[in-house]
Amino acid sequence: MSGIDFDRLRAEITMERVLTELGFQSVSRAGDQLHGPCPVHRSTSPDARTFSVNLRSQRYYCHKCRSHGNQLELWAAVQQRDFYPAMIDLCHTLGHGIPWKTP
Questions:
Q1: How far apart (Å, rounded) are the C-alpha atoms in residues 22 and 84?
Q2: Which of 1, 3, 44, 74 has most Cβ atoms within 10 angstroms of its Cβ?
Q3: CATH topology of domain 6-94
């Protein structure tokens, strides 16, 4: 079996789409920067701002648990799964075809 084309997947699935699927509710927004409760360590405080996302760069960082990365890494971290199976799960969850690398 061929591998997943992760570059293509990052280009096709945005951070906003992953955040929406995770049910993320931002507490504040300044341009492309969102802040809110961290979905990785499952912050329950409705006014938490430890989780920061830059929609333009498609990157996130939590100032409490130190989790960071792109939208695909965020999905894997929240699902607590290894990266490859998490990407299969993400594609299935979003109804998105898996972009396989061609030999």
A1: 18
A2: 74
A3: DNA Primase; Chain A (3.90.580)
